[in-house]
Every structure is written in C-alpha cells, then in structure tokens.
Amino acid sequence: MSLEKAHEQIAKPRALILAAGYGKRMGALTQTLPKPLLPAGNATLLDYTLFQLYRWGIQKVFINVHYLSEKIIHHLDRYSHFEFQILYEPEILGTGGALRTVYEQLADDSGLIVINPDRIFFSHENYPPQLSPYTDASLHVLEKPAGSLEPGWELQNNVWRMNRAGGRFFYCGLSILRPSIVKDFALNTFFELGPVLENVAQRDRLQCIPFSGVNFDAGVLTSYQQTLQNFYIPEYARDDWQRFLQINP
Q1: At CA 74, angle to CA 90 and CA 63, rounded to 5?
Q2: CA distance 111 to 175
C-alpha cells in the first residue's frame, strides 16, 4: 500500500518530539550543537525523526526545546511540510511535564505520538501507531540485552507490568499516549512519565508492542559512536527517504 493510500484510511495523530535536554551526555560533541542535531549518515538525528513522522503522514508536530534551542528552531525552518509548535522550556520539565504542556493545547484526547530523537527509527509500517479504545498508553519496546539488570516491562497474567528486578523488554523511546494521563499534574512543573505509565499499567490500560523495523541507539556517547559505524537506511525506506529529501531540500 502506498503512503498516500495508507494515510487516507487512518486518522492522523499528532506528535511530540522530545528535544529538550541539558547538552551534557555527549561531552564535547554537544558544546556547540544540541544533541538532536548530531549527524548520522548524511542527516541529523532530528531529520530521521521527522522522516519517520513523514512516513506516517503526520504534519502537526509539537517539539520541546531547551539547550541551544535557537539552533533547533533554525534547523526546522527548512521543513515546510510540517506544522510545528515550539515549546520552549526555560526550565526543563521532563517528559511528563512536556506532555502536560501539550495536553493544555489540544482540543481532544486522541492519541499523541511521543518520540525521542535519541533513537533513529525506520518502522516497517507506513501508517502511524493507533490506540485502541481500551488503552491509554502504547509503548514500543525492544528485548533487553542478555545479562541486563535494568528494570523492564513484562507480561504478568496477560497484563503488562514494570519489573524493577528484571523484565524482558525496555521502552525504546516511541509511544502513543492519551495526553489526559497527566491532566492532574500541575502545569510548568517537572515530572517524569515513568510513574504515570506504571499507574496506567495498574489500571490495565497500557500495552507494549515490540518495535518492528530497523533502529539505532544514539542515547549516550558509546551507543552513538556505534551507530555511526553501523548506520544505514534500510531498503524498504529508501524511496521514501528520497521523496522526503525532495520536498524538504
């Protein structure tokens, strides 16, 4: 199915790109560049995030910014395809706080894609993830490396739960959420989303979906360096990538 036909058949959600950071994890690499503008291949981490949203037919994009925000805003000027809403954070609000800001500006509670440019995604699907009427949060996950002791998500009696002593899967930075899950928090207040998601899971309103496609981790310096060595655009996304470059030169 072509991108255009897929997009005609499915309602298009909005997206929130989490681009507000302190600029510290990458050391000298981010002294003059914010992390989302670090290169991989012939583009930036942020470009690949926008490309994935383009493949899903998404045009309305919220993006929170903090460190070297003016460089991110200037970079977005080349993208006429998208309708951006910049959320400048004088003080970083965390993922939860950013979602709370977006909730204040939405007229409905349909799904909002939340995506982190720390990871490059090339989904096998050319239509956006959707929420069922019985779900408030859908997390894309990957299987944890062997021997990892980090907390993770797992199925317990057919219900997804966070296991702080293990768990088979970790959240990989891509989700679709109902913004109302944070409606009871104060606006312009820092809070993380993890405890909120655990509460959603306790109400059996959360699902985890293994990510289907190629992905590259750029979260910390070592994983970013590994991505630079191994990076490629998979064959199934290359034609779309060329079209994306043509409309966003």
Answers
A1: 50
A2: 9
pLDDT (tens digit per residue) in 105-162? 998 998 999 999 999 999 999 889 889 999 999 999 999 988 888 889 998 888 899 9
Answer whether 61's CB lies under 8 Å from 84's CB: yes
Q: Strand 152-156 relative to strand 60-65: parallel, antiparallel, unpaired?
A: unpaired
* Tokens 């699902």 belong to residue: 207
Dist CA 172 CA 141 (whole Å): 5
| Listed residue (223, 10, 242) closest to 113, CA to CA | 10
Q: Let me know: does 46 contact 116? Beta carbons within 8 Å.
A: no
Topology of the domain comprising 3-247: Spore Coat Polysaccharide Biosynthesis Protein SpsA; Chain A (3.90.550)
Task: Indicate the domain borders of the chain.
Answer: 3-247
Let me know the angle formed at the C-alpha of 173 by 172 and 176, rounded to the nearest 5 degrees. Answer: 115
